[in-house]
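Q: Structure tokens for this one, please.
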Amino acid sequence: MNRKTKPSDFAGKWEIDEKECEKIKEELNKGWTKWSKRWNLK
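A: Here is the predicted structure, written as tokens:
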């Protein structure tokens, strides 16, 4: 990460609309489920 980057600049990149956010969460959940099954995690 660039040390010159201000937190405020960085925060702007995370302003995603709610639908996108839900989609990303869904993808993460799917990915996690896949991996946890592969590694036999509960």
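A few notes: The first helix runs from residue 7 to 12. The two ends are 34 Å apart (CA to CA).
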